Amino acid sequence: MGNLKDCIAVVTGATRGAGRGIAVELGAAGATVYVTGRSTRAQPAPAYGQILSLSGMDRLPGSIEATAEEVTAAGGRGIAVRCDHTDEADVAALFRRVEQEQGRIDLLVNNAWGGHEVFDGVFQAPFWERGMEQWDPFINRGVRNHLLASRIAAPWMVRRRRGLIVTTTFWDRDRYMEGNLFYDLAKSAMTRLAFGMAQELRPHGVASVAVTPGWMRTEFVLAGHHTDEAHWREKPALARTESPRYLGRAVAALAADPQVFARTGQVLRVGDLARSYAFTDIDGRQVPPFELDAHA
């Protein structure tokens, strides 16, 4: 992996899951990482009661402080900043702080996502049987979060004529995620957002890409299968999974690539990037790109 000791990064939604994995791997490459989200040790984010109950958890896992400490322990510098990424004033204050403290922003990873707040355990159902309560967390606290952070961070990058915006998404060559229209719509919008931003940022030397992992063994996924990272191999249903750090290594490789601008506007699968940059997951496997079932 490349050396990111001079990289100033912001990872949104970095308390747990994908964001945590990305932040820690950026730290392992030496980056200074602003770890943002709503969950602090003193006050976990609200609205996760349903998924906690379904997962058999009594407390929301993770905090921005814990992730920041992991970043520092990995070799970088983690800085925890509480930020509600739906609040424009909060987001603007975050980037003002980064600029004041560091003088620049090299990497923004858009990862804050509200979808878990309405997870009801139903993976497949026709759209007409799903309630409109999914719209707000998927679109307004998902897609909008990414756009809001990007539009506030972009001017700092444009002025320096350099920078990288990474948008985490899900994409499998335009296959439809059957029975999950709201999720499919949100992730497709994120993918298009990364593409559209790339077109407008291209003349200014700033790159924008979408990065799509496979099925990750997040804290919620492990809890839902009644296991942990040390014992997941005992669960055949998790055979196709990858750790969030695999996605993190993909983002770190892109951030360290001096030719990353050649990829601007693209949707990049983690499994493909693993082959391209010759990295593996934490267990030594080079997990291939995740694919939906052929009928999906």
UniProtKB/TrEMBL annotation:
InterPro entries: NAD(P)-bd_dom_sf, SDR_fam. Pfam families: adh_short_C2. This is SDR family oxidoreductase. It comes from Ramlibacter pallidus.
